[in-house]
Amino acid sequence: MSIVRIEALHKRYRLGALEVPALQGLDLSLAEGDYLAIMGPSGSGKSTLLNMLGCLDRPNEGHYYLGGEDVVDLDDDELSEIRGRRIGFVFQSYNLIAQLNVVENIEVPMYYAGLSERESEERARTLAELVGLSDRLRHRPAELSGGQQQRVAIARALANDPFIILADEPTGNLDSHSGEDILNILTELHGQGKTLIVVTHDERVAARAQRTIHLLDGRVDRETHNGNGD
């Protein structure tokens, strides 16, 4: 069964009297454990598709099945629940809370999921160790490098063992060495069976995925297979 299935997805934005198409009948399917990269020029629909996959926006038409459930018609509270439990987000700008240390930042999604303080702290410590931050547990974001902050963001994305991890330009703010470290972590997670979707403009990032879809004018223009574990 596909863990992600999109069927005939349309999204249009209204600009005054104009209606601008962002996605035009897009179809997409991922099995559990797939690693997909999404590429395309500015205006191709990458950000819109990411927002749809992350349940941050709704389509005008079509279906989005996540774990077998069509989430298109869910209300805002139900979508919030889906985001918290089934989707892990990794952003280019990290989006960490400045006042919280590494462990506390990783714990945030678990707080909303209702885990006990002891459970969440133990899991946060384990995840921090998984991404190589066992010696930085009490550091705040300002005391970390960009690469370390992105490691925290990845650990936070894993907090509730989500169905999918969505990464939006995860190496965009990093130097080449730190970026390579982050890509290696994502590759390791894929090797552990995680389902990853990465939006990127960087061919080197996309090459780490199993396959890449190239968007153009809100449609899949072409798809390439990279031979990484297919």
Structure report:
With 230 residues, this protein is an alpha/beta fold. It has one domain: P-loop containing nucleotide triphosphate hydrolases (Rossmann fold). Helices cover 33% and strands 30% of the residues. The chain has seven helices and ten strands. Strands 6-7-8-3-9-10 form a six-stranded mixed sheet, sandwiched between helices. α3 packs across α4, α4 crosses α5 and α5 runs parallel beside α6. The longest helix has 16 residues.
Give me the secondary-structure topology.
Blueprint: E1 2-15, E2 18-31, E3 35-39, H1 46-53, E4 61-66, E5 69-70, H2 76-86, E6 87-90, H3 102-113, H4 117-130, H5 146-157, E7 164-168, H6 176-191, E8 195-199, H7 203-206, E9 211-216, E10 219-225
Parallel strand pairs: 3-8, 3-9, 6-7, 7-8
Antiparallel strand pairs: 1-2, 1-4, 4-5, 9-10
Helix pairs in contact: 3-4, 3-5, 4-5, 5-6
